[in-house]
Amino acid sequence: MAGSKSDYLETALLNHVLRATALASPSTVYVGLYTTAPTDAGGGVEVSGNGYARKAIAFSAPAGGSTSNSSTVTFPAAVPAGWGTVVAFGVFDSLSSGNLLYWATLTDSRTVAIGEQPYFPAASLVISDD
Known about the structure:
By secondary structure, the protein is mostly beta strands. The chain is built from 1 helix and 10 strands; from the N terminus they run E-H-E-E-E-E-E-E-E-E-E.
């Protein structure tokens, strides 16, 4: 997966580590799906409507500079219409709106048809930091 930290998170981390500016950890982080991938600056086209909602996600303890989702993440069914072709995911600090923290393109884009429930098995969403 190609992707990275958002500009928002890069700036917040630099301020926190080098300028002693507080950085509050979100109590929950959420994964969202994109039909057009974002960039570090944000943007992209997140899926919307037709039953779509970001899903809470938990990550395993980091090892070797990376972490991954600790359990399967299942989205609601796409109804009454499909969601289009999902090409990327993003990790956010809020269920809606909020700040994009990390994003990556999917190695296997997929068209979500009516009634389908996209999911990511445990350990399939990998976030690396170098």
